[in-house]
Amino acid sequence: MSDDKLVGIVLVSHSAEVAGSVAELAKALSGGAGAVAVAPAGGTASGEFGTSSELVAAAAASVDRGAGVAVLTDLGSAVLTVKALLAEGDELPDNTRLVDAPFVEGAVAAVVTASTGADLAAVEAAAAEAYSYRKV
Amino acid sequence: MLDADFFRRWMTAATALVDREAERLTALDSPIGDADHGSNLQRGFRAVAATLDKEAPDTPGAVLVLAGRQLISTVGGASGPLYGTLLRRTGKALGDFAEVSAEQLAEAFRAGVDAVRTLGGAAPGDKTMVDALVPAVDALGDSFTAARTAAVEGAEATTPMQARKGRASYLGERSIGHQDPGATSAALLFVALEETAGE
Fold first, then answer.
1. ipTM of the assembly?
2. Quick check: is A72 in a domain?
3. CA closest to A50 among chain B residues
């Protein structure tokens, strides 16, 4: 896979600050992963806590380079909104996937893996594997 | 037979009911949720009413698909994708007919409720909107009045339940003794349907 076709990453949180900060953190912890397109979709369009399908769709479109888009979410309406958009078929780029992963650790794993030129399945697997990293 | 105008009036009636009940829904959402259910649904249904006025979809299915899409776009909470999926999937199941029978609506609504259950993963007894929707859809084949009665009773029956889905589930036993706001708002859809049919 060529470098100009990296998997894009979307981070959906109830909070714009959380989504934006996790995006910054994942990019920072990924070192040379600057080429990976990472877009936060946090809060509602009016700046409140919640989920906006428009912000999610816009973020997914903005990171789509043709290699697929991995979407990580926090909880509740973030999960349900992405699932509802995926179920209808025409609102997210082709090859967009909701990745079942812890939000922060999964985001770091996804961005690092995407930076290697790995395909969507590998990015998804790396993010999901973050669940198995125990802290105690 | 039920035409697009009937479905538009149904959504308008639902919007009026949500407006009237918004404070009560938010109050129900305060002890076991995040106190935004009424205001979220109010924003969503007002947007539905405005879009239906502007775009005037001309089949029953198109009315519900548009309403569902608008709810997903504007609600901002979990009820947006859940109600949006309910209406959108029901609308798709109605197809392109200019008029549908009550039996067709009952069948399509079942597809919508199945989609909600798949999306949210809730089963009857989990203290969610499913506890109003499932009995209502089961009764919809009999009459709109029977569906309304079943939905309202289903919502009331959530009071002694312990929540197993959504934010309320984090409260464990403390969720017992409160009527579920989602089941309560789901019942409003069937109150509106009965009103619209004039039964």
1. 0.85
2. no
3. B76
